[in-house]
Amino acid sequence: MLALRTMFDAFKNKHGLGVACFIGFAVFFWALFLIALPQIAMLDYSFRFNLPRADIGGPSDVYTLENYAYFFRGNDGGFNALDVGILFKTLVAAVFVTIIDIMICYPIAYILAHSATGVAARLMVIGLIVPFWVNEILRAFAFRILFGATGMINGIGMEIGLWDTPIDFIRADIALYSGLTYAYILLMVFPIFNAVEALDRNQIEAARDMGASWWRVHWRVVLPIAKPGIASGATMVFMLTAGALAAPQILGGPSNLWFTQLIYQWFNESANWQRGSAYAVILLLVCIGFVTMMMRVFKVSIGEIGR
Amino acid sequence: MNKGTGGGVIAAGFSLLFFSFLFGPLIIMVITAFNSSSFPRITPWECFTTEWFAVLIGNDRLMNGLANSLFIGVGVVLISVPIGLAGALALSEMGPRLRAALYTVLITPILIPGVVLGISTIVFWGALGRGVGADYGSIFYDGMFLTLAGQVTFISAYAMLVFLARLQRFDPTLTEAALDLGASPGQAFRKILLPFLSPAIGSAAFLTFLASFENYNTTVFTILSGNTFTTTLASKVRHGTDPSLSALAVIIIAITLVGAMVHEAHTRRSQALRDGSAARSKIYGNPVLRVIVHPLCVFAILIGSISFLTYQGSQYDASVCKQQVLDEKRARQEQLLEEQRQRIKAQKEAAGATETGTSVKKSPSAFGGAFGGAAPKPVETPKSPSPFGNAFGSGTLAPKTD
Amino acid sequence: MTTKDIVLDHVSIRFGSYTAVDNAHLTINGGEFFSFLGPSGCGKTTMLRCVSGFSEPTEGRVLIGGKDMKGVGPNKRPTALIFQNLALFPLMSVAENIAFPLEVRGVGKKDRRKKADELLDMIALPGVGDKKVHELSGGQRQRVAIARALAVEPDILLLDEPLSALDLKLRHHMRTELRTIQQRVGLTFIYITHDQGEALTMSDRIAVMNAGVIEQIGDPEAIYNRPKTAFVASFVGETNAIEGKVTAQTGELVVLDTPLGPLKGTAAGGRKYKPGDNCYIFIRPEQLELRDNPAGENAFTTQAVKAEFEGNARLLFLGANGVDLRLTRINTGERPADLAGTAVHVGFDPSKAFVLPHSALAGA
């Protein structure tokens, strides 16, 4: 309380009473009413039964673990292999997409920071940003045009005789993975770029001068500098991929569900918000747990995210 | 160009591949908007047409969603830019430990899956509504309000990052100097810090609007039974599709490109004016070129060319070509039928049977349905199955305008 | 006491357990050019911020014109601060910068412009009012910053190392200029610097600070010629420090046992020493003289290591028995014999050397 008071005074002395009040109110409202309380409400909700409105607050409105138990046991009391499997598959796929993004974006970020100059560099930056001003749904749609049974790739592939029956890229999830990889490229390129840009060009030249091969230069000199950027980008790409909804809905095969689609179903098709909340909590915890674990493994802190 | 760390050729080649991955899908989508085939595709090319733009404009649900999205977008900009600014100012003033803690809290909405944010928003405001005894018609159950709340939660963090980046370059002694020169803290804020932040306010407003307009994961929950541009788009793509979506992409990409070029003209101009190289440079030194590269002029030229193209496109009539394609298909169909008839006839003759008429009637049923329903539209060649695999039936042949 | 006097009444400033300023107690007279001189981190900037109102003393009081300044914000004090980086507002024109103090006081646009033009005339930069700040040269910006501070019509101008960003020639020029401006406007200037040259040339009085403590206050002559502590002696001006033990004292004359043999010096400030006290004897390079033979008072023999030519003077580096010394000679226009590598005889006048108690030296 005292700390808050001193801080408020510091703001008041620096920016004036009005600004200090505005900062205090806005940050308080944001942190409490938009961030903290909704998450707590969702957590609370996930421990309740799906009751008719009349019964809410009544004697039957008690806490339960039922919604979480369902995730593990399903209806019949056995192991809920379907839902757990979907969560597992979602995580593995998100990791996969993240790794692909790192592999694609690291070279581009490096080229942008240290090879491209003048007009080429400006064009590259514009070229990177402009595709991402196009709606996410339309970008997924573009991939459906590309990968559909009569899409571009099948058309060309069959035309030049690589294969003779249309390949179902959608069912094989290739369309989905490509779409997801595409969707978050920007979030990977710029953190890595920011990190690599700080590297002094002379260091690379010194290393080359001492006879290091180009891959060793990258491994020993560039990569350590890029690490915080990669970690930051990877965290965002992973979280967004695991939490993606539009791309799996549009590009996912009919039998392959993403975990977010399960949550969506509990809400919009089964009208069971409590169970949907429980599934959302599970997704959130698993993702945060996974990211924290990875951060610990690679020794980076959350303070570096978003730089 | 690149000595020693990868080789110029490899770098250039990789960049080329990378950017074809970025732009390839978009370019193909743009092309499909002008193909009269009722599935968005390039091969087989049927006729050049602009009718999908008309189909798009005629989509009332999408246009209604657009209005909602614009409204929400403006609301989000008006709320999350000030909140993000407050967050950034608060962080820039704090001691390192408190700062790290608050930063973690404020940045998490970016990392929390949008789905989770959407759910927590409706659950929280719903519970609050119940707590104060509000009914379902109240603001706590209003899709627009909930969408605003849900989007502001994480979009404010984007705005905050923009302001933090700008604040890092602010020299705090400027504020101190203003205070020392007799300004009140409020005056120092208004006259020194705010003007310094004004470019960041512009980019934050742009970014937050775009993020709001694009958002699907959170909005699809918080909008409840309503719809925004993006959710309408998504349900349209999920449940069947036609090139009017490509037409939409053409419009959005055109807007984007115009915006990017005008912005580029603006930054170059202001940069040239700032560092004083304007007089020396070839472009800015020449009075005619100087006018032409003025951002407003660039904008006018681009808009002019687009209007011209649009007018030309609207005058273009694809019906002759489409009729031709239709005729070709008919002819091919006739030919197939004829061949079949011949075959059946031959079979019959061979078998010496008599019921020729009935079997002729049965055999064209494989494509019969397509002819009747989609007469003014180009017709699928019978060989092509639905382009999106088994997900869709044959009911999506004609463009949907629901 | 005039209305413009500044009194620092036993002021201490602490940040947590760190003491930035320790019990500063002094009076700065109205109209004086007063410098705080010390190495970076000695607390001089903290002291200045305390006078200008950006921080409050942890203990003690700051009085300006007899009024306690506690709780009075920087915008309410009769002071104007010139920042180290000048802190000119980059988004405003030169005239807008200078007129800013008037703008926030609600002065009309026309009057503001008139006053700005007057001040620009005063700093000899007429007609640059509509330029942007970044279009000016370093020295011009310097003067604009001063004009802006003067527009406040302050009683006291505080300057925080304002010349440190300038190149050497300009810095020397601005010294004279600052002094001229100060004498013309008759304001109290409080000047912060780590450059003893600036402090010595411009100041009426100087306070030498080290590690939060004011070591000595005095006019430039006193600071240079009669340092009171080992730190002041070693920080202000070039000097040679020879460590030794006191063997005897007669009046002001102290005899030290040093690695170079017994040497005599003057007890600064009339101090009394006991035999066995650890002391330094300080002698300026220009006070050391080369002699023909080892006889005579305060003479010793050492080794010449190398010679450097500095234009107006010649510098000779000497070293023997673990004591390194520097000796300067005025350039007479004739090239002396190269002494490097030979044994030389050196001596000095005891009245030109001060003996001070052993304590921390500058840069040690």
From TrEMBL, chain B:
Pfam families: BPD_transp_1. CDD domains: TM_PBP2 (cd06261). Residues 346-402 are annotated as: Disordered. Belongs to the binding-protein-dependent transport system permease family. CysTW subfamily. It is a multi-pass membrane protein. PANTHER family: PUTRESCINE TRANSPORT SYSTEM PERMEASE PROTEIN POTI. The chain crosses the membrane at residues 12-34, 70-91, 103-127, 139-164, 192-213, 245-266, 287-311. InterPro entries: Bact_Polyamine_Transport, MetI-like, MetI-like_sf. This is ABC transporter permease. PROSITE patterns: ABC_TM1. It comes from Roseibium polysiphoniae. The keyword Transferase does not apply. It is found in: Cell membrane. Residues 66-263 form the ABC transmembrane type-1 domain. Keywords: Cell membrane, Membrane, Transmembrane, Transmembrane helix, Transport.
Automatic annotation (TrEMBL), chain C:
Pfam families: ABC_tran, TOBE_2. The keyword Nucleotide-binding applies. It comes from the Bacteria. Keywords: ATP-binding, Nucleotide-binding, Transport. Residues 6-236 form the ABC transporter domain. GO terms for molecular function: ATP binding. Belongs to the ABC transporter superfamily. This is ABC transporter ATP-binding protein. It comes from Roseibium polysiphoniae. The lineage of its organism: Bacteria, Pseudomonadati, Pseudomonadota, Alphaproteobacteria, Hyphomicrobiales.
